[in-house]
Amino acid sequence: MINIMIADDHKMIIDGLTSMLATEAGLQVTGEAANGKELLEKMQKTPVDIILMDINMPELDGIETTRNVKANFPAVRVLILSMYNNPEFIRNLLEVGASGYILKNTGKEELIEAIRQVYAGQNYYGKEVTKVMMESLRGSSSSNNYSLTSREKDVLRLIVEECTTSEIAERLFISTHTVETHRKNLLSKLNLKNTAGLVKYAIEKGYYL
């Protein structure tokens, strides 16, 4: 069972999310809070695996609350659920330890997928969030100086676009074995463990190819 707490200063949002999640097997809402301070107090005595966190809250906002959660409850994962599709907010929240970021207009299916992926230890960024981040970072690529080859850059760009190994091979007219070789080289050069790490790194570091 995945224990979820919701932090949002709008009661209607909390009630709506609670009702939505109540029908999903394996998920249960164990608590709610109207601000970050209240959330941190309730976490002392409430079982929680994942927090659905708003950004704009009174007393303690989502960014500072996430920082506090990761410092005091490192095993708890934070999934940001916000109306702000703002690159600066997204980068700030990734820096303080959020495991994912989706928008409040996200449908139930994507919300459930995000919760399950984050619970499994992965990071999740909504499709609209990823698109906005990539668009905002187009102009910053010239200021980054990574020792990647032109082909490695092509492969990384397609990985960020969520292409499979076969799709990358087809689009670049190379074999799947060559794609995997480039992927391994990227992981080695950037000191990362997996493909999810490559995507997270690209977003966090403002690396758009």
Q: Any chance you could write out the topology, listing elements then pairs?
A:
Elements (H helix, E strand, L loop, with lengths): L1 E6 L3 H12 L4 E7 L2 H8 L6 E4 L8 H11 L4 E6 L4 H9 L4 E4 L4 H12 L4 E2 L1 H10 L13 H11 L4 H8 L3 H14 L5 H10 L5
Parallel strand pairs: 1-2, 1-3, 3-4, 4-5, 5-6
Helix pairs in contact: 2-3, 7-9, 8-9
CATH architecture descriptor name of the largest domain: 3-Layer(aba) Sandwich
Unreliable stretches (pLDDT < 50, length at least 5) are: 139-143
* Secondary-structure element series: EHEHEHEHEHEHHHHH
Amino-to-carboxy terminus distance:
40 Å
Stated plainly, the CATH topology of the largest domain is called Rossmann fold
CATH superfamily of the largest domain: Response regulator
Q: Class of the largest domain, according to the CATH hierarchy?
A: Alpha Beta
The secondary structure category is alpha/beta
Report the principal-axis shape: elongated
Q: Which sheet architecture does the biggest sheet show?
A: 6 strands, parallel
Quote the average pLDDT. Answer: 86
**Count of distinct structural domains:** 2
Instruction: Give me the side-by-side strand order of the main sheet.
Output: 2-1-3-4-5-6
Rg result? 18 Å
Q: What fraction of the residues are assigned to beta strands by DSSP?
A: 5-15%
